[in-house]
## 1
Amino acid sequence: MGTDIPLVWYLVTALFMFVMGGIGVVVRRNPVVVFMCIELMLNATNLTFLAFARYQIASAQTPEAALQAAMSGQMMVIFVMAVAAAEVAVGLGIIMAIFRLKNEAGLDDMSTMRG
Amino acid sequence: MSGNQIVFIVLAAIACIGAAGVVVFGDNPVRSALFLVLNFFVLGFLYFTLGAQLLGISQILVYAGAIMVLFLFVIMMLQQQSAFLRSTESDGRGPIAWLLGATMFMTVGAAVLAPLGGVTGSPILDTFGTPQSIGKVLFTGYAWPFLISSVLLLVGIVGSILLAKRKF
């Protein structure tokens, strides 16, 4: 079951999402929105992993090698999801802790470690 | 243009609108979070079009469900109290960021995507994204990373509880 969708379409979608996340990290000064933009970038890379896993460019020699190549991309996506879940829990905890520490702070005010 | 391509274009357009909305409507974090939910949800369907059923389902459950609920919960708790969430002054770095983003889009697009232009779907194994095949690989070849990620999740649980209960 092959599809007639070119690989590049998926990559362009993922690239657009990644660039939007990067712009958002720079433009927005709100810590929660910056965090959401980081999630957006993680998901863009996930889409890239899956697209490359589905469209194998190098032709595999044996069925086992093809299965290995197709699965390694999906394994990467699973682990990125697990790490992102842990990261969100701890990151939002840190944001809440910062908020309790200094009641009113933007990202630009968190500069106590500046040399 | 075939039916597959039309479905893909509709899904990708909605995903891109969601991604752009997160940044453009970032003044209001709730709106931004809802656009992100839209993006994650449609991204799950893009995974379906790639044949990865299990990952599409877990994308919708984990991201659009659990993680975004966490985000909205934190926004709800913070928003009652302060201007913490409304510090949006961009002091002139906005246009530079958009310019750099457009540059990155075009540079990566030209350098990386151009050589891949002709690649279309290859005949793929029927068992590409089924739970059986993923489970078989995850519990054999990737057993160590799987166990290590479980330790990471445990550390995440303990760390977030510690951060929440600690008196500063």
## 2
Amino acid sequence: MSLDRLRGTTPAKRHNARTIAALTGNPGCSRRAVLDAAGIDKVKLATRIGFPGSFGQSRFALARGNAFEAMLKADDCALLRSVLDVGVVDYHDLGADSDDTLGARHGRTLSLLGSARPALVDHPLLTLEVAGQTVFLEPDLIAFQSEGRLRVVEIKSFAIVDGQADSAAVSGAAVQAAVYVLALRALLGDDRVSHEVVLVCPSNFSLQPVAVVLDVRKQLSTLRRQLSRLSSVSSLIAGLPSFVSFDLSLSPSDLISSLTAIEARYVPECLSSCEMSVYCRSEAAGSTAALGRSVRESLGGIEEVSTVLDLARGAVAPDPGQAEAAALLRQAARLRDEALP
Amino acid sequence: MSTLVALARAEAYAAGRAQPIATVRHLHVHDRPFVLIPLAMAGEANAPLAAMLGTAHDDPHLLVVEQPRNRDERFAFAAELAARLVPYLESFAGETEAVAVDRGRDVRHRFVDAPQVWLPNTGGVDFLRLFGRSTRFRSVDGDYPVHPAVPLLGRWLTFLAGTSEVPGSSLLPNAVQALTLHWATGQSGAEDAHLGSLLAWIESGAAAARLAERGPVAGPATDPDFDNHVLAPLIANGDPALRTTLHELLLPTWDGMWRALALLRALPAGDRVGSRWDGDRDAYSAYVQHLAEDGAPQPRRDGAVAAAARLQRLENAAARYAVQRAFDDPLVMAEYRLAGAAFGGVVTLANPDRVDDTGKRPVLRPRIMVATTETVRVEPGASLTSPARPAQKAKVISVTATATGHDVLLELSGGMGRKLVAEPGSVSAVGESLLLTTLSEAYRPGAAFPDPSETPWTHGGPPVVVESVHADHE
């Protein structure tokens, strides 16, 4: 079965650094891997089957992000140059003429970055192999080239106050930057692209920019591992039954039976990162995983809540593999009964 | 997460209702709390949008910033918040009581009560901490003067946010944390962070919780859809309906906060909650004194010595809080029993008059034998205590496996009076059920830290310049 056939008549949704970064969040989930590989619009799919999530971005946040970036790039990037402490170097915006074909832009990116001239390169068009397919990435980033080495510059609008920032925001930015580093390395070779990226954020409570250097080696190795696992998605798709399709013109019940054919691995963290999470949560109801990873571990890794309670009450005999967990659960149930009036 | 709490979550899922995970209340709930629900503007660095606040359920006060990106309006909001909050905070700096210190050789005074500010969630705490940071260095003169109450508010907020990091402190509690300390729901911890959903699990059940999830958020972040479709046009047009809209948005959370307080008040307070509140009153008294004497704002970052000392205080507080909760609450102690750090048993032998006369002078050292069927993970020589007799130490002499479990032989010392015959009731009698644990309430002395001017080079050396208090105009 081909990817396009899975998607049906709906146009493909393009991967971006955000979606690739999200793949590292829950790598064991086949459902997400297949839906993303096939370029399916998960927001529309979730809405169509009656499980919409809330994944909008506030326009206030967008406005501030755009204002910050515009401020940095105004006057031939005057502020950006000063915060990055680069001298007089060229600035090239590759995204300026949008009537270009992707291939041509990619070619220009390659020749510009390959030339090893010191420069700030905005909107380069990169490619990355994701799940056996070549994905075009149009990063909203600047690659700064000096002395033959490239550095990824990420502009983010969350504040760094007294040298500290929201850890979730920073780690998100680091993973996204790592995606670009990986794509740049695929293009130019490992030793041409630095594993240190520059994060430019507003400092304290103003819009004054500040630049900090992040080491993304850890994120790079995680991404590489996930991407290599994703290459098996093609074989996963090949093994799907023929009725599986996510054509949005199908009825919700057909779409749901297609979804059921691909195994998901729901964890509560999905709620903040995956558009399908509300559906997966309802599907996972009754599993200990739906209560959280740590709950599941504390319950001896037993999958179903009902099994946990049966074992705790001694209503069923444990499997040989569950004996230890069952003893702990019985003891826990006894202690709870004893302490509660 | 402990297996006991995990099991309670499983039970809550099956029952469709939250299940208790505590038999007593583990925090102080004030008779006159100040409830504060801050809302922030998305995208901005700590820009307040609104706040609902007050000390009575039927009298919520709403503060609104009509143009949140306007710096002057932001500080006008700070001044209004200060006008409401600071008088409340200062209202407890009245009557004092004498406390003996240095083994009764000296006394100090502390206020008989302290303030308690309730927030909906930890996000609210983070918001206030940053708001304290953005206001405490402001200057009241110069190019960008602010109202004199603004830097004072910043100092108070920074103080309160600092205490919220101390385990067991109740000066700045938040409803989500307080409720999840006492109830387990049938959903994940991430979903519990939604106050409305958490309350619904406790009050009505799972179905109501799913509905509540789609209800208004408890801040400080707003819902993106609300921002895009409701808030943006109102702000753009300077629409006077903004106030009413925000009032309606915040009111369900306001009601929820007071319901959460009522739920907590209905639980009996643990025995050691009072002593922790004494510590909170100490912290409050010391800060009132600091403001009266010096009043300098807290530094942006602690120096090496101050940071190390603070870390140690936090570690001590965490250890003490864990032990106190276990001693106050059999359901918390059960977690330690499950892990083998505590066990319950029955006294099978007792020699209450045993005197050890091998030393220079004879001492009373009764021995008891405790038979238990629970997991015992203690070695001979270990020192145990029992919540029933916290002043008494029980040294493990031997642990012998039996057909049904273990026999533990213990030698008792302390808490039996000064004579060579134990006070009646101070030694467990045969047949008494007893709980013993390796947890100890013993005083942990603070470590000695060098004077800041003696900071070793490994920690950056002595601070070169003391950071001057200046207003940063940002």
## 3
Amino acid sequence: MKQHRSLSASRRGLIKWGLLGFGGLMIAALPKAVSAQSSGRTITFSADDVGILNFALLLEELEAAFYAAAVDSGQISDSMELEYVQVLGAQEAAHVTFLRSVLGDQVLFETADLSFNSSGLNAVLSDRSTILNTAVTLEDLGVHAYNGAGPSLTNPTFILAAGSIVSVEARHAGGVRALLGRSTTQPDSDRLVSDDDLVASLNPFKGQAYDELYTPGQVVAIVGSLGILNNPINGALVA
Amino acid sequence: MKIYFNSIFYPINQALRPVIVKITALGDRCDQQIKQMQRLGRTIALALPLAMLLLCAGPIAAAQAQEAVLTPRQVTEYALTLEKLEADFYRRAVTAAQSGGLSGVPQAAKDIIVSYGQDEAQHVADLSAVLPSLGGNPDMVVIPTNPNYAAILGRDPFANPADFLLVGQYVEDLGVAAYKGQVQNLLAAGEAGKTVLAAALEIHSVEARHAAGVRFLRQTLLGADVRPWISENARTKQNASSVEVIYNENRMGSPIPFSSDAFDGYATQSEVLALVGPILTEAPQTSQPRPQTPSNQGGSTENNAPRALW
């Protein structure tokens, strides 16, 4: 079991990775994000734990690249807002580092394989309000995506790790929503997937008091609607 | 001694009964729990050791090597207990506000508190509706008429916004950790646990949004040095007025780097109930400042703070 071997990687090792990795990741993601025009290679996710963790990695990469670009845009000038955006970006980068460590040689793509659409990215970086509201969308989406992945995971350490990350994503969502004066929880009017489209068996409860479970397919559709990522996505997980 | 426990701490005993059955090992583990308990601060340092003694001295304590796996029904009953407490906690805050107690707090912040209370009440209603299908009875999941919230800081948490929001942060962060601590149990239950797992996940991240919101209010309204996320190597050991989280957030020995601010820690049921046990006792029936008791005297000058700032 490769993922087990990788998982036993020492905490010290992970932290060292993180410290060494953050700067590199932020730098690596940024030029790609503003320069790539090609569609990038297709990423195919399998419907198992490895596919799910790789899918989570993709969302984390997207978030990390977004925050790096947001900082670089110069549009966030308020010191408190800038601190939030910087810390959130660093935390997403830590998630990237962690997931790459856990996946080891089962990682499906490198950061450099991702191709970000520069016009799409520029559109969401146009001003402070657009940046923060896009952050809310990405963070809300991350919460629903991790929640949706939970019941499909089979490895107990993976579901605990997902839980450890998803509540941080929810804190991000709450924090940025608060900066904007928006509700920290998600009103039904903000819902990214409508009641009718939610999978009933995954969602015993619905409404503002709950963060509903989205399927990977639903998440991919929302990512696509943002127009940021060029890489085609397919595979059994997102079918 | 036993009679003393049974009479004075009967409610704690009741609340911790499942824990006593499930608690793991003596020795190191109890030492660890006592250390955690000390992080709550000196003000409740008398109440908790007693709860801990109950835990550590449970007759079946040594029988199991690690924390037992809870069934989906047990997880639901446990979650419902916490949700009932949270809902009650916010209800009392709203009552305090209605009687003029929240006068120093902006209306927008009051609206947030009301909204979080509604969420918790919704969780109570929906978990209660699910429990019978698991063989349980929501009416058997009870909390005291007047939970002893003063046990958390050693003083009434509804007397001023600073205390209320600090306790709110403790409660919400602990709720997040408590739900996270059950995902492996629910996964282990297989198909039988899928519905409760989905429900727990749906609630878990909303509690984290609440925690973030309360923390944001503390940062922006009170100037507290706190952010929506739990800080790197969060303070858990100092006196109660400066502790960031009351459970063991920076758990070591896991491949998951819990001490990182990018990863939230979890708490087991026994850890949570050890923290909540003192609250699950009937509070003294007074509307005035309570007479000093041994359980809230340890904290020095904290008890001399003005009781009604708003």
